[in-house]
Design goal:
Layout: H1 5-15, E1 20-24, E2 27-30, H2 31-47, E3 55-59, H3 64-75, E4 79-82, H4 89-99, E5 103-106, E6 120-122, E7 139-145, E8 153-158, H5 159-172, E9 178-180, H6 188-197, E10 203-205, H7 208-212, H8 214-223, E11 228-232, H9 233-245, E12 255-259, H10 267-276, E13 279-284, E14 293-296, E15 312-313, E16 317-322, E17 331-338, E18 344-345, H11 349-355, E19 356-359, E20 362-373, E21 379-384, E22 388-391, E23 394-397, H12 398-408, E24 413-420, E25 426-433, H13 438-448, E26 457-460
Parallel strand pairs: 1-10, 3-4, 3-5, 5-6, 9-10, 11-12, 12-13, 25-26
Antiparallel strand pairs: 1-2, 7-8, 8-18, 13-14, 14-15, 16-17, 17-20, 19-20, 20-21, 22-23, 24-25
Helix pairs in contact: 2-3, 9-10, 12-13
């Protein structure tokens, strides 16, 4: 029988009990201490007499207690629910109530976010047995993502799916001291934490202040001999720009993984990887599958295209590209099956049955992403299918306009939308954040797109609005 993630962690502790597991500034704790502290959380939850696989909220600031609590929840045979303290209180309370969480682990700073809540636990006051208590629960976490209706939906990820991801990652992305950058509300945190701790390496925690000051983080990477980082494209792009302007290229860095949005390669990114000689991995996967498709870019940075492919299925995952009639086609909607599929949406059978469907007697997730298969057999991301709009009888993918604009200004942040004028006419509007020239952009688009796809307006903005 295969080990669960918590069982694999406990086994790893026995091989390197005195090695540093977590670092945060000048402070550190060993694998043995991390194991004992997480045992205390697990034993405390045991005393509550909760049903196995209960959802346990975790609402803590970045630090050791956050990692301790996550591991402790899993050891008790439960499922952790990240509750990011920076989220609006109304959203946190909705997630807590909708998930039917049986308890919430908090630090003193965040106890007031959940008044009149049963089993609200201050982790700094837990003082129970340090003896191993490990239950093989079925699930790992619930993460809430934005819903098309405006109401968040909770994705439930199981042990099988995430164990498969970790096994694949251990064979394809080299291990080493890893930066813990992602907030726990973003699923990449799982790869950072458990991809590091199950391999016996050190996880370096950055403060929230460092996360928001990428130059400080760049310096921390060099000062602490960080070998591996996971970064969303927007952070990767800014770090590469800062590295050039400050002539600071951390040559200790060996592996960089980017995910979450389309990777767009520009001169700053090429220069960064030329100087550091780090490998760049492009990962793709919605919250409902975590990483299911990946590509490692070649060592020859000069050969990198401006919009790299997302790659091929990871081991254990299955992908199908289908049209509306469920026929396999070179370009169509991506469906993901095999070992990379979530259990579904928690307490939401209607949404689950709509997006998790059966194909050839197997469960597949309907991603809503339009992809194409290139000549090398790799998948290329094209656009969100729901980004399709209709203007003057023409069906238009806004993603295609954005990709085309991005080629003209690779370092700019770009999005497009449809606006309705006072006369009722619908027109395309492109928003650009960063250096650009409206005339040059329109000329570039005119060279690549038919007239009906050309934007009526190009608007410069200081920043693009972001969801949590």
């Amino acid at each position: 029988m295969k080990k669960t993630i918590q069982e694999a962690f406990t086994a790893q502790v026995k091989t390197c009990p005195n090695k540093i597991a977590l670092m945060h500034g000048e402070h550190s704790i060993s694998y043995k201490e991390l194991n004992e502290r997480s045992n205390q959380v697990a034993n405390h939850l045991k005393q509550l007499g909760l049903e196995k696989n209960s959802v346990i909220g975790v609402c803590l600031d970045r630090g050791f207690d956050l990692i301790v609590s996550i591991i402790g929840v899993l050891k008790a045979g439960h499922t952790y629910l990240p509750l990011d303290p920076s989220y609006p209180v109304s959203r946190l309370r909705y997630m807590h109530e909708h998930s039917q969480a049986s308890a919430i682990l908090c630090d003193p700073n965040n106890l007031n976010l959940f008044p009149n809540t049963d089993n609200l636990i201050d982790v700094t006051k837990i003082n129970t047995s340090k003896e191993d208590y490990v239950v093989a629960g079925d699930n790992v976490y619930v993460i809430y993502t934005s819903g098309s209706t405006g109401v968040p939906k909770g994705v439930l990820l199981g042990q099988a799916c995430l164990s498969n991801l970790l096994n694949w990652q251990s064979r394809n992305v080299a291990n080493g001291t890893t930066l813990q950058f992602a907030p726990v509300s973003f699923d990449v945190h799982f790869q950072e934490i458990f991809g590091t701790l199950l391999s016996g390496h050190t996880l370096y925690l950055v403060s929230e202040k460092q996360r928001k000051n990428l130059l400080d983080m760049l310096k921390a990477i060099e000062a602490n001999d960080i070998k591996r980082v996971f970064l969303p494209f927007v952070a990767l792009e800014q770090i590469c720009k800062l590295a050039k302007s400050n002539d600071l290229y951390p040559t200790c860095l060996e592996e960089v993984v980017t995910a979450g949005e389309q990777l767009r390669v520009n001169d700053n990114i090429r220069e960064f990887f030329k100087e550091t000689k780090a490998r760049l991995h492009n990962h793709y996967g919605p919250s409902e599958t975590h990483v299911c498709v990946a590509k490692t870019l070649s060592a020859d940075v000069s050969s990198w295209p401006s919009l790299p492919a997302i790659g091929v299925s990871i081991d254990g995952a299955k992908t199908l590209v289908l049209d509306q009639d469920m026929n396999q086609v070179p370009e169509g909607e991506l469906y993901v099956g095999g070992s990379s599929v979530a259990e579904g949406y928690i307490h939401d059978e209607s949404r689950t049955s709509e997006r998790f469907i059966e194909i050839n007697n197997e469960k597949y997730y309907k991603t809503g992403d339009l992809v194409r298969t290139n000549m090398e057999g790799e998948l290329e991301f094209v656009a969100r299918i729901d980004g399709q709009v209709k203007i003057s009888g023409h069906r238009i993918e806004l993603g295609e306009i954005e990709n085309c604009a991005q080629q003209a200004f690779p370092s700019a942040d770009i999005c497009s939308t449809v606006k309705t004028l006072e006369n009722g006419e619908k027109v395309i509007c492109v928003y650009v954040c960063g250096e650009h020239c409206e005339k040059t952009l329109k000329e570039h688009l005119r060279e690549s797109l038919p007239d009906y796809m050309l934007p009526r307006f190009v608007v410069a903005v200081d920043s693009l609005p972001l969801t949590p």
